Amino acid sequence: MTTVTDMAELARETAVLEVPATVGALGEIASFVLRLAGRAGLDKGAAYRIRLAVDELATNIVMHGYRGGDGRITVRGRAGPGEVRIVLEDGAPAFDPVEGRLPPAPGVRPEERRIGGLGIHLALTSVDGFGYRRTDGRNISTLTVRAEGTDPCPPRP
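User: That's the sequence. What structure does it adopt?
Assistant: Structure tokens below.
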């Protein structure tokens, strides 16, 4: 059984995964995120939320950032008691997910809505914290999810 002391030690360690920016690597990223969620003791709902958000952003990096070209995605993760923080880094053209999201359009039928951006909106509203910055030619997105009931969710981006 993992103790609070063990969890605090895990929180000090950052796990790193570097993969090619390909559709085939998305499963490896998802497994990495779910392992961290398990280390943090996240319930199924919180684990699903962080996996969903990371998957959406990683898919966008592959499909729209690198557009099938060569590239790499670096995923850094930290699991602490009741919390997981994931940092995605890539060298694709600059893209701030907050600016690229498209909130649902009330009253507009799905087939009449603009294509794109809704997945990012869903991803960003499913996490408890999100940040983006562009540093040294790299996109850096940070996502945080806490266990259900540990902290009220802050306002969404």
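Residues 18 and 74 are 4 Å apart (CA to CA).
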